[in-house]
Amino acid sequence: MTQTEPATDNISLQQRGDEYLINMMMTPEGIDDPAPWYKKLRDDMPVFQSASGSVFLTRYEDCRAVLRDNRFGKVERNADATMLAVDKSDEMTKFRQAQQERRRQGPQSMLFLNPPDHTRMRSLVSRAFTPRRIEGMRASISSLSEECMDALAEHGGGDAIDILGWVPINVIGELVGVPRSDWARFRDLVTTSAVSLEPTATLDDLKSAEVAFGEMWGYFLDLVAERRVMPGEDLISGLLEVEVDGDKLSDAEVVSTAVLLFGAGMETTQNLIGNGLGALFKNPEQHHKLWEQPELVDLAVEEMLRWDSPVQIDGRGALEDADVAGLDVPKGASIVTLLGAANRDPAQFSNADAFDIARNEGPPMSFASGIHFCLGANLARAEGQEVFAGLIRRFSSVTQAGPLVNRNRMTLRGYEAVPVEVTPR
Ligand code: HEM
Predict the structure, then answer these.
(1) Is residue 8 scored above 70 in pLDDT?
(2) Which of 32, 63, 397, 422 to pair with 155, CA 20 to 30 A apart?
């Protein structure tokens, strides 16, 4: 790799950058609030190659450029947390290799594919996952969210993660066509499987995640077989019907898509709700403003996504020798796009560290960019908007009723518990 600074500066710069990364990812303070470390990286070394070989990007434009550049894509090493994994023991490496091998044998979800396979899969899935289908979910989102508001009202509050976190799982359950009686089971399975995305995942975490994936896979194989015989109005039936120039999704591809939708759409959206409440509690004057001006709710949700992004880390691998914002990288190099840092880039957002619900400066990087841009972005936004509009409509006040408990996760950032007290109108 080539860098412009002299060699001695490179060493001290690299040590300093690695220290920033350790502070950011492995200390309670860093995990609680990575923003100061993002700022240090962005100010001192915006294109930083760590001793691990991975290149870290913190500027909005750099992240966007890499995510939109097809010289960078999904490589096995960065298909999950392996590129940043903390545990590099032999046992862990063997487990990850076996996991990769199992993945290679089954159909991959679109998240792990490059063109042309990604293009085919995404375009087939998009025929069923249409903006019309998502807009058609609005009434459902609203009534599912209202049920959760009732639960809050009944007890004068409670843990918002536990109670409002039902909204995303219920919405995906209904969209995909999972019977209501199984939604609770899926909430546990998805939570267990999502840990595999974390750099700090232990071997036990990964083993439990594999079991959870296996259970979801088996469940959807049965559901897909049922829908083949008796189609309904749901997304699985839609995916089974889609055909483009004689090309159709196989049953296994429909299964991998259903598992992906649950994995990608549940915890992320739960974190949007939890992090959004956290942002309001930490910024009381903005909290007050939102209750005074509920018409700002759509912008407020956009600002929640930006200020405390539910997904903080994304990445790509170099599919060929290439350059990243002036740094030459060889084929296979890992590029880590720190989405949470990009969202605080002062070159993109004025007074970027301030939480301002009336900000209207374009989309955050929270849903990534380019060919893997989040397929569920509008669904997630609709859920966030319905939940916060519902809270304002139903309660004259929603206040913090205890400490916010962090989940200690870096990739999918969120709270374990957000205790609230509500006053019904
Ligand atoms: C606030 C909530 C959400 C956030 C922050 C979020 C974020 C992201 C990000 C950053 C990616 C890009 C991953 C990459 O570059 O490799 C992504 C991809 C994806 N998301 Fe979301 N997501 C959210 C909600 C949802 C929902 C509700 C669904 C659907 C039910 C969903 C479905 C997907 C799918 C299918 C992909 C893969 C797209 C592809 O590979 O072409 N997401 N999401």
Answers:
(1) no
(2) 32
Q: Is the CB of 41 under 6 A from ligand 1?
A: no
What is the 41 CA–ligand 1 centroid distance (Å)?
Answer: 26
Distance CA 98, CA 236 (A): 29
pLDDT tens digits for range 204-244:
888 888 899 899 999 999 999 999 999 999 999 999 999 99
pTM given for the model: 0.93
Q: What are phi and psi of 350, to 5 degrees?
A: -70, 145
Report which ligand 1 atom has the smallest distance to the Cα of 125. Answer: 35
**Residue minimizing CA distance to atom 15 of ligand 1:** 372
Nearest residue CA, atom 18 of ligand 1?
374
Q: Is 121 in the pocket of ligand 1 (CB under 6 A)?
A: no
Closest residue to atom 27 of ligand 1, CA basis: 265
Residue 190's contacts (CB-CB under 8 Å, 6 or more residues apart) are 169, 212, 216, 262, 263, 266, 267
Output the residue whose Cα is nearest ligand 1's atom 40: 111
CA-175 nearest atom, ligand 1: 30
pLDDT band at 63 (very low <50, low <70, confident <90, very high): very high
Tell me if 172 CB under 6 Å of ligand 1. yes
Task: Say if CB 389 and CB 294 are below 8 A apart.
Answer: yes
Q: What span, in angstroms and rounded, lies between the C-alpha atoms of 11 and 408?
A: 30
Rounded Cα distance between 195 and 294, Å, is 35
Q: How far is the CA of 126 from the centre of ligand 1 (A)?
A: 13
Residue of 268, 277, 313, 411 to test ligand 1 pocket, by largest number of atoms within 8 Å of CB: 268
Report which of residues 270 and 135 the model is more confident about: 270
Domains assigned to the chain: 7-424 (1.10.630.10)
Burial of 37 per CB tally in 10 Å (0-12, 13-18, 19+): buried
Q: Can you tell me the distance from the alpha carbon of 388 to that of 408, in angstroms, rounded to the nearest whole number?
A: 25
| CB contact at 8 A, 354 and 263 | no
3-class DSSP assignment, residue 240: helix
Residue 261: CB within 6 Å of ligand 1? yes
- Angstrom distance (rounded) from CA 307 to CA 38: 13
Per-residue pLDDT at 87: 67
